[in-house]
């Protein structure tokens, strides 16, 4: 560790940034792919849904939606706390 740069913190930020920045879109893409496979039928044939793939894709979509919702609430936590009195996710009390 130098006096100017905290390398340990830089690595933490890099890893979290990669996981969230590339991980959530990749997870969403996997959910879209599984949903397309679960929907069945790609031509004139009758579509036969695969309920297991549809359920897995729905769970993946729910995880991504929850992660995005928590991220937005985390960014706006002080604003929400100041205007509503609901201090969530470690918002500062004034």
Brief description of this entry?
It is built from three helices and no strands.
Characterize the structure shown:
The chain has three helices and no strands. It has one domain (7-84). The chain is mainly α and 94 residues long. The mean pLDDT is 87. Helix 1 (7-39) packs antiparallel against helix 2. It is 70% helix and 0% strand.
Tell me the fraction of residues in β-strands, as a range: under 5%
Number of helices: 3
Radius of gyration: 20 Å
Number of strands: 0
Uncertain parts: none
What structural class do the secondary elements suggest? mainly alpha
C-alpha termini separation: 35 Å
Written as H for each helix and E for each strand, in order along the chain, the element string is HHH
User: Helicity level, as a percent range?
Assistant: over 70%
List keywords for this structure.
94 residues, mainly alpha, 70% helix, flat
Which helices and strands occur, and which strands form pairs?
Blueprint: H1 7-39, H2 51-75, H3 77-84
Helix pairs in contact: 1-2
